[in-house]
Amino acid sequence: MIQKTLKSRKARLQPLCRWLRYEIFLVILFMVFCVIPGFASEQEIAPRKSYAVVTEHDWQRLLHRAHLAGLRIFESDHLVLITDRTSRAGDALEDLPVIFDEAVRIWASHYRIPPSAVRKWKVCGCLVVDRERFRKAGLLPDTIPDFTNGYCDHYRFWLTEQSNPAYQRHLLLHEGVHAFTATLLNLNTPTWYTEGIAEWLATHRLAKGPPQFQHTPIPVTPEDVEQLGRIEMIRRLRQSTKAPSLDEVFALNPTLHGTVSSYASAWAVVAFLARHPRYQEAFALTEQQPLDIGFTRRLNGQPGWNSAAASRDFDAFTADLDYGFDCSRMTINWSSGRRLPVTGATSTVTATHGWQNSGWQLEAGGQYQLRASGHCRVGQLQRSDGLLDLESTAGGISIDWYRGLPLGRLLIAQWDEKPDVGGRPKFKILAEGGETTFTAISNSPMFLKINNRPVNLSLSDGELTVNIGRKGDAFPSR
Ligand SMILES: [Zn+2]
User: Fold this and answer.
1) Would you say residue 363 lies in a domain?
2) Fewest CB within 10 angstroms: 200, 365, 371, 442, which?
């Protein structure tokens, strides 16, 4: 089942990047930049200083051809959508242009382009079932390569029909982001950013009731992003030890790009940079500068950028990435900590965050004993009579498990630069539970975590007290 899903997704996603092969050439032909000074002064964040003037297109000629060919047309402020797809239950093609318009507002806000500058921005997208029909109608020029799923040529893009409406919507928006960035921002960035930002800005859920675009760049639940599978792919890459490093994603080659894993990795890097407290400012600053081929170099040259630290933080990010991941609760404190006193020491671990530095450094080969006390809330269940708090001690609770361990169980780890099984560095769990002994793998800090889903952290509360000492010694008094 998984194999089948992987195969079909790979086939679906490969063509997105063909856009890149033509990008440099087309961008040079197309763009005229201008500087628009002094607008929207009330905004807290300064608006973008430069972006292209919208080229207004008269789509009437194309619409006339579409009419003659008997194609369906849906139109909104920012999109003309032409399709030969017939109505199907749940398809809601007529909603797509309005959703597209809502997404355009998010994209403009992301790049700090004032709404007035995109008011007349309008693109033409073709949702294609039968390519020959579009070719005969003059709506699919021979100059467009034989794409598999999607292709963008500035103010025009094409996508093939998808069986899943949510994924079809995502693909439409992905190509829409390419159109937006190519036409308004002259984008000519390395592959990881070009594809990563298209994935980041396209990822969404539909609000209940009237269809409404809600940007969920890191989705909270799988149901919000049917068949997208980015988070699952990163998980599989980590488990198979094939997860790329940050630098490997930065170096993604356009000609090799196009697998599901490369799309997932590109999205993951943008998610990491856009949300991680240590990097989001540098990333936002770089995005405000020219989106050209020097993007990665410029990002790495931002004040305070530390490539080794960023690489380690990215590895920690991909290792724990999951639905509802909240960087502010999962950021790692890497400080080396103090040497553990011979008399032992005490630390605490909160239920509201991911891996936490105990503040105590262990010695490689040293044997330690640990005892934890207290209880905390590790989630809440909605029941007919109200919310039920899930209370746990360091042993965890048996009614719910996460990543093979009971929810709420105390995990003790050190950062492992070279895992025995290969793959990227990660936290190696040395012990678990409320009373345990273990051997340290390196001269490095002891990290603690209460096992939980990232999405549960905001529902959690409380902390455990942890006593740590050399094996055989007495524990410190509590
Ligand atoms: Zn793409």
Assistant:
1) yes
2) 365
Kindly give the distance from the C-alpha atom of residue 33 to the centroid of ligand 1, in angstroms, as a whole number.
Answer: 23
Q: What is the pTM of this model?
A: 0.88
- Which of 206, 148, 202 has the alpha carbon at shortest distance from 175? 202
The answer to whether position 30 is within a domain reads yes
Q: Determine the distance separating the centroid of ligand 1 and the alpha carbon of 49, expressed in angstroms.
A: 26
DSSP of 65-93: HHHHTT-EEEE-SSEEEEE-PPP-TTT-G
**Is 1 among the domain residues?**
no
Same domain, 22 and 152: yes
In the reported structure, the alpha carbon of residue 257 is separated from the centroid of ligand 1 by a whole-number distance in angstroms of: 10
Cα of 64 from ligand 1 centre, angstroms: 29
pLDDT at 29 over 70: no
**Ligand 1 centroid to 184 CA: how many Å?**
16
The residue-averaged pLDDT of 445-463 equals: 97
What total of structural domains would you count in the chain? 3
Residue 311 Cα to ligand 1 midpoint, Å, equals 25
Whether residue 318 is contained in a domain is answered as yes
